[in-house]
Amino acid sequence: MRLLLVEDDNHVAAALSAVLARHGFEVTHARSGEEALQALVPEGNGFGVVLLDLGLPDQDGYEVCGKIRKRTSTPVIMVTARSDVRSRIHGLNLGADDYVVKPYDTGELLARIHAVSRRTVQEDAGTGGEGVLRLGAVHIELHTRQVSVDGSVVQLTRKEFDLLALLAQRPGVVFRREQIISEVWRTSWEGTGRTLEVHVASLRAKLRMPALIETVRGVGYRLVSPVS
């Protein structure tokens, strides 16, 4: 996923960009509000998420958020040191999709990025009338929970489908093991790791595409989009 990081502190931006890159994001760094707005032309310019720090040198961050929302529907996550409820409400009213208060945990930030991008994919699928994710020969029907490969239906368990759909909504993006367990099993990581490994192995076998789900050592898994 391409991510636009709007942050005027180069040291903070460099450190965060390195973390995001390790998790599969392609990061573009904008140092000012104007630079961010130019990067989003035309119509979002392919970015999946905008991570917007409110402390910018040239414009008020809230003002930048409002301008972004007028130009594109790309999800915006505000990052700020302001923790009061009024500031959060103001940001959301301007069109922000989420709000992270400094200092934040990197794991939480990654989870929020995935959450807002996933909601956008689900909304787009629903409004499109099909709700189908197409990944080469693999077709995933979100509404009917049916998966087919080369036109042949593949029988999956509920958790196998949930796992595949989660990864398929952002091909190439690395999902942390903890996040997958939280999203699919609605529980904590402790004691559930082996279950995840078994489900990944089962999906690879049932789909007859061992390379479709890639293990990212020490982090988690990502779906490698096959060639159509």
UniProtKB/TrEMBL annotation:
GO terms for MF: phosphorelay response regulator activity; transcription cis-regulatory region binding
Q: Which residues cross the membrane?
A: none
The Gene Ontology CC terms held by the record are: cytosol; protein-DNA complex
| Family annotation (InterPro entries) | CheY-like_superfamily, OmpR/PhoB-type_DNA-bd, Sig_transdc_resp-reg_receiver, WalR-like, WH-like_DNA-bd_sf
UniProt keyword Phosphoprotein, yes or no: yes
The record's CDD domains line, in alphabetical order, gives: trans_reg_C
The record's Gene Ontology biological-process terms are: regulation of DNA-templated transcription
Annotated region of DNA binding: 130-225
Protein name, as recorded: Sensory transduction protein RegX3
Presence of keyword RNA-binding: no
UniProt modified residues of type 4-aspartylphosphate: 53
What SMART domains does the record point to? REC (SM00448), Trans_reg_C (SM00862)
UniProt keywords, alphabetically: DNA-binding, Phosphoprotein, Transcription, Transcription regulation, Two-component regulatory system
Query: What organism does the UniProt record list as the source?
Result: Streptomyces regalis
- Domain Response regulatory stretches: 2-117
> OmpR/PhoB-type domain: which residues?
130-225
